[in-house]
Specification:
The complex is a heterodimer.
Chain A: E1 3-4, H1 15-21, H2 23-26, H3 37-57, E2 64-67, H4 70-84, E3 91-95, H5 100-111, E4 115-119, H6 129-135, E5 140-144, H7 158-167, E6 171-175, E7 194-198, E8 209-213, H8 228-231, H9 239-253, H10 256-277, E9 281-283, E10 292-297, H11 302-311, E11 314-315, E12 317-318, H12 321-324, H13 331-335, H14 340-343, E13 346-350, H15 357-377
Parallel strand pairs in A: 1-11, 3-4, 3-5, 5-6, 6-7
Antiparallel strand pairs in A: 2-8, 7-8, 9-10, 10-13, 12-13
Helix pairs in contact in A: 1-9, 3-9, 4-5, 10-15, 11-15
Chain B: H1 6-13, E1 26-32, E2 37-45, E3 51-59, H2 62-75, H3 80-84, H4 88-94, H5 103-123, E4 134-136, E5 141-142, H6 143-153, H7 158-165, H8 175-186, H9 204-225, E6 228-236, E7 239-246, H10 247-250, H11 258-269, E8 275-278, H12 279-282
Parallel strand pairs in B: 7-8
Antiparallel strand pairs in B: 1-2, 2-3, 4-5, 6-7
Helix pairs in contact in B: 1-2, 2-5, 4-5, 5-7, 6-8, 9-11
Classes of the chains: A alpha/beta, B alpha+beta.
């Protein structure tokens, strides 16, 4: 049996989502742009999905552009906004803990001559709002700050940041792929200009996402060659994907407030259990999404923990260097100053609405033994991290 | 997910020879918590000078644990001369192979073995090997380690050297250094790269400008990749005062600082007589 606790990586498509998508493969397979009713009727379903996604985040349907996923949404937002400014401003503000889908396009712009300020976070993962404030100048073209961190779940003060950007007429983009569908978001109150959404993070299908583009925000399309999505994103619509994302958004909105509480309770049970029962455990990040728990285990290494959890059918992830195939631990944990004694031994558990209390208790049953076993193998436990 | 062989998984699940030996004849320690993997190896010889008991402790991933375990099995009953002839490739082969990016685990196993043998001989009054220059300061990898990995495993690229030794996998500033070692051993000249010529006589303004340009071109890209940065504080005669920012300010993995790397680059591109100091030290 699989206990899937890696929902910040991807989620199961909800059965309702799969069912909603089904007719659009071989029954209603027309092209929404066609001049016959067979194709034309498909447009109705895309419009419906647009309404469903807009409703989830308090936007109007015209502000939603469908994309091929969170990564495309981030790229479109950043590059599209910067290109629309035609080089009139050459400074970008972001954080040190962004997802690569934000970090890499910004790095590309840095190579093209843009200046970059990467706002730091403290040891709890909280953003240095004062540094962000100081960083914004009349030269600042774009601020891009994630809504919630994918590794730690730490939430950033998006409402305040959006307000400050608005006051100073700076584009504000937020990568919200981890937040949308997990916590209430109301963009009618929060003046974000651009916001990225991913389908497969909220029980929708992979390969589809959306970008919220607030009315009157200038953005240059990055995919050219068609009038689709109001000339903002060319290419024949991924109809099954879009319908699936719409359905997923509607499901997420239903009973969201209750689900936030249930998830937080479940996560807290896991958190408390681990901190109480496992030796050398340390919590990474505070003020988080309700579903995310990132813990480090002193003197042992994350990939080994994952492999042993895997033997019990438990799926989690790690910010350890070995697990990612790089040689350095997670940039998020390093930005938080997590000590080296712990940085390589971090494990992320991310829950979904399909997880149960029995599953959490099963993890708590096996994890302390795994930690003990790896600590027995570790040369550092006896001497508190040193050789001698 | 890594593609580990059944044998790797077996040695990971059921590692052989875990633990410590009281009063060992030789002890080898390699790696560190900062590096993400480390191995402590101990052995005891019998009256025939063969390895009688061997124990290890490993901090690291599945393949690090499996490589350590495999190595201990391979050296049991061997003389030190036989044991030190074991290559990292033989450790990997024993396990049915390791993923490319995990070859450094087998190298760690072999390095701990050599360190333990070295420790034994030093204790017995044998001459110790000459210490070699540290090339990768992030992971404390010496020129000798890199040379050995290149020769034994027929490595051709910097990326391969990183897979086998971890050198160059941190801040990346030593990549040109590794390239130079590869060139020296493989004997093929590097591709011609146009580097700006070093001017002869510089005014202070020119010097500051050139220092800043060199930092920007040669040092910052690698540091930024790693979440760090370096700032030029002042240039006073031949004294260049810098300040490390971000992760670099805390990273002291080896007892070695970035100062040396910066100084080498500035001497190469600006002026031979430059001395680099960090801001905090300059005030003292």
């Amino acid at each position: 049996m699989t206990i899937y606790l890696d929902n910040n990586a991807t989620t199961i498509a909800a059965p309702e989502v799969v069912e909603a998508m089904r007719p659009f493969w071989s029954e209603q397979y027309g092209n929404a742009s066609s001049m016959h009713s067979f194709g034309g009727q498909v447009k109705r379903h895309i419009d419906r999905a647009r309404e469903q996604v807009a409703a989830l985040i308090g936007a109007s349907p015209a502000e939603i552009v469908f994309t091929a996923g969170g990564t495309e949404s981030d790229n479109l937002a950043i590059r599209g906004a910067i290109e629309a400014l035609e080089g009139s401003k050459k400074h970008i503000v972001t954080s040190r803990v962004e997802h690569p889908a934000v970090h890499s396009p910004i790095k590309r712009l840095e190579n093209l001559g843009y200046h970059l300020t990467e706002v730091r976070v403290d040891s709890d993962g909280a953003l240095d709002l004062e540094m962000l404030d100081r960083s914004i100048t009349p030269q600042t073209a774009l601020v891009s700050i994630m809504w919630a961190n994918n590794e730690t779940g730490v939430l950033f003060p998006i409402e305040e940041i959006a307000q400050r950007c608005k006051e100073r007429s700076v584009f504000f983009h937020s990568d919200a792929v981890q937040a949308v569908g997990k916590i209430p978001i109301d963009l009618s109150r929060v003046p974000v200009d651009l916001l990225s959404i991913s389908g497969h993070k909220l029980h929708g299908p992979k390969g589809v996402g959306a970008l919220f583009i607030r009315k009157r925000t200038k953005l240059l399309p990055q995919l050219l060659g068609g009038h689709q999505e109001g000339n903002r994103r060319a290419g024949t619509e991924n109809v099954p994907g879009i319908v699936g994302l719409g359905q997923a958004a509607e499901l997420a909105l239903e009973g969201l407030d209750k689900e936030v509480v249930r998830l937080a309770t479940l996560r807290d049970r896991l958190e408390k259990g681990i901190l109480d029962r496992c030796k050398g455990a340390r919590l990474n990040g505070r003020n988080r999404l309700p579903n995310t728990l990132n813990v480090s285990f002193e003197f042992i290494e994350g990939e080994s923990i994952l492999m042993m959890l895997d033997e019990h059918g438990i799926c989690a992830s790690s910010g350890s260097a070995c697990a990612s195939g790089s040689l350095e631990p997670s940039h998020v944990l390093r930005a938080m100053g997590v000590p080296f004694t712990c940085a390589h031994g971090s494990i992320r558990f991310s829950l979904s609405r399909y997880n149960t209390v029995e599953e959490i208790d099963q993890v708590l049953e096996v994890l302390p033994g795994i930690v003990d076993r790896l600590r027995e193998l570790s040369p550092f436990v006896q001497n508190g991290g040193s050789w001698a | 997910m890594w593609d580990y062989t059944d044998k790797v998984m077996d040695h990971f699940r059921n590692p052989r020879n875990v633990g410590e030996i009281k009063q060992p004849d030789g002890v080898g320690l390699v790696g560190s918590l900062a590096c993400g993997d480390a191995l402590k190896l101990m052995f005891k010889l019998d009256d025939q000078n063969r390895i009688d008991q061997v124990k290890f402790q490993t901090f690291g991933c599945a393949s690090a644990i499996a490589s350590s375990s495999a190595m201990t099995e391979m050296i049991k009953g061997k003389t030190l001369e036989e044991a030190e002839a074991i290559t990292n490739q033989e450790i990997a082969d024993y396990l049915g192979g390791l993923p490319d990016q995990k070859m450094h685990c087998s190298v760690m196993g072999r390095d701990a073995l050599l360190a333990a043998i070295d420790n034994y001989r030093k204790g017995k009054g044998f001459e110790r090997k000459v210490e070699s220059r540290v090339v990768c300061t992030c992971f404390g990898v010496s020129e000798q380690d890199i040379e050995r990995a290149i020769r034994e495993n027929h490595l051709k690229t910097v990326e391969e050297v990183t897979n086998y030794t971890k050198a160059g996998g941190g801040c990346g500033t030593c990549a040109p250094d590794i390239e130079a070692i590869l060139t020296r051993i493989l004997g093929s000249p590097p591709e011609e790269v146009a580097v700006p010529q070093k001017p002869k006589r510089l005014t202070t303004i020119q010097k500051i400008k050139l220092v800043e340009e060199t930092l920007e071109r040669e040092i910052r890209p690698a540091l930024r990749k790693d979440g760090g940065d370096i700032e030029l504080v002042d240039v006073d005669g031949n004294l260049v005062i810098v300040s490390l920012r971000g992760n670099c300010a805390q990273c002291r993995v080896a007892n070695f600082t970035l100062k040396d790397v910066v100084e080498v680059k500035l001497r190469e591109f600006v002026s031979d007589d430059l001395v680099v100091v960090e801001e905090a030290m300059a005030g003292m």
